[in-house]
Amino acid sequence: MPGPDSPVVPRAISAGSPHTNSRFADLTWSMAPLIDSPGTRMSQIHWRNCPEPLRDEMKLAAWTMINGRLRPTYLQTRGSRARTRTSAPVMQETCRTWMRFARWLDRHGITSLAACTEDTWRSYATECWGEGVSRRQARRLCSHLTALWQFDQLSACPKGVATPPWQTEGVDGFLPAVDDKGRGENSTEPLDPRVLGPLLIWAIRFVDDLADDILAGWAEHRRLCALAVANRATPAGQAALEARVLPLVRSGTRLPTTERMGTHQLARTFLAAVTGASLGQVDRLNQAHGLSALATERPGPCPLTTPVTGRIADRPWREHLDFSEAADLTRHLGTAAMIICLYLTGMRPQEVQGLRSGCCPDPEPAADGTPGRHLIRSHHYKNVTDEDGNHVSAGVVREVPWVAITPVVHAIRVLERMVPHGGLLLSAAHHDFAGRRNYHGAVKNSALNKRIEDFITWADHEADVHGLPEQVIPEDPHGAIGLARFRRTLAWHVARRPGGLIALAIQYGHMRTVLDARVSAGYGSRSRGGIHSVLDVETALAAADTAARLRDQVAGGAKVSGPAARRALTAAAHTPRFEGRIVPSTFAKKAAAFLARDGVVLYDNPDAFLICAFKQDNALCDSDLGATAPRQYACQSGCGNTVRTDTDAHRMRERAEEIDQLAASTPGPLGKRLRVNADRLRATADAHDATAQTAEALI
């Protein structure tokens, strides 16, 4: 039995843990000693939310859960995902569920767990599920409540909690009716292309074009802050301060200011640093002349002397960087690099938060002299357990590294300049540019989500200032841009935008090549939850949509041409129509099996104005041996997998007209090449008209 002074966690999970251990009698228990993942928030259990009559009993069960483990005989009945000891966040969630149950017991006059009978469980489930709880959530709550019964049995002083009836009768009878609130395989909506395009443009612009200016400005900002603190009061400093400030006061000119919480304040640190005065001398001058009030009325800049080399729309993006914006710009730079890493790798947010400086070394060239690929060595955390089945908070090194394309490498190099060698790329301490507080681990999800929104606000303002209305980032129709949506969006665009129509023509086809490098069952993959399953789901849904559109077009009398036309119509007739947006989690395996049917899957390629009925033996796009999808960015004319419809021919002629208009205002050889391209599109459309047949004639 634990005593009042017994530690909640007798031994931290990592040697040298800096976190303070709580005591059993404390009303707040810190779970930090159980957390090694840099992206996990340091959670706490607040026992003041538990009714006092039941508090000690609930504490004992929680202490047993933290320090003990479930019986193997019990786990055998719980499925492959059951763990002897779960993660700290799950323990915290479990304790919150227990406290809600305790408050319900207290309202019903039950003051001991010993009085919790089978009828009590039934009454609580009936009342709790009547509050609009989804079936998925109810199943999870049942699991947490079952843990109370289990850990009561394992404690040093069991209270005799009755077995929950769903343990003996099956949980399905205690759950709400089937609804649509549960999460499916693709319930996370991808970002709208109109949002992602300008968002990624601004992120890449920050990293490639503005990073040097921003980091130089931040270094100068820190130098000035250190200088201001070190300055001592001297007559020379006082004279320089008065010579700089008093003429501005007398002439009515704006004063150097900084903005804090929406209000303008005198830039005392900046003034002290650039004049050599002490902070005390600045404060005394402020009091003597009422500078604070004048600064509020007449806010002015604090220009830094660092050179500006970056450009936006072929113009310098700033006349000078400002002392007051250096911290915010550096914060936005870290956000931009994080967005690139999240979106263009397929990593989960927790994996990006766990990246460290040095994770992506420059590769050695191959034996034939060709440059090697940049590989990212990282940790993964989802479903990681030790040999006893316990959750491993620190994660493990991924056996198969991620492959980084050029924008990701640039983003990592920028982040490496912001943190010490070997440190977390998103270190919370080093990315707290305003406060410079000693935070633990990486910047957490809620803070990163807020930084994305702040970055969008800044980018929209700059787009307006620089006259770039097409680069304003609109609101996404599905709500806030959360971290989890980037992974789904990558798969969506690889499957549906193969030619890179978005985001500076980054080659999504190349990303598919990278993502399909399934060495040892998979680049970026651990069981069903890997990036492959996400990509397979989106690709299968896109193929089903393509087949449905082809069926609808030929049913409406459209004609089809191309060497694979007959095969495509047969495939379309046997491809199921996908209705709705959410698909079950079991769909991932079905999607992979569907895509493996060589010669049957239809891939829309709007950039090439065709449908690819991919059959590897016929492919001219240099697809790898065993590939199940074409390299749509490398589509070749004359391929035996080509299929065209009347709609494709119509779009080719529309595109030819657009090119002709462009050629009319383009002089010299470039205009001639544009006209040749337009003529080629018309010739291909004419060839379709001459050879196209109806579905009845082909089948």
Mind explaining what this structure looks like?
The chain is an alpha+beta fold. The protein has helices spanning 52-67, 72-75, 88-107, 118-129, 135-154, 165-169, 193-230, 235-251, 268-275, 279-289, 291-297, 326-343, 349-353, 406-416, 445-465, 484-496, 508-515, 531-555, 565-574, 587-595, 646-664, 668-691, 695-698, and strands spanning 28-30, 44-46, 255-260, 263-266, 299-300, 311-312, 315-316, 374-376, 379-380, 396-397, 402-404, 560-561, 602-605, 610-613, 642-645. The strands form six sheets. The protein has a four-stranded antiparallel β-sheet, with helices on both faces. Strands 4-3-5 form a three-stranded mixed β-sheet.
Kindly report the average pLDDT value.
83
What would you call the shape? flat
Helix content: 40-55%
The number of distinct β-strands equals 15
List the uncertain runs. Answer: 180-185, 500-513, 516-529
Strand order of the largest sheet: 12-15-14-13
Main beta sheet, described?
A: 4 strands, antiparallel
Salient structural properties:
alpha+beta; 3-stranded mixed sheet; 23 helices
Concise overview:
This protein has 699 residues and is an alpha+beta fold. The chain contains 23 helices and 15 strands.
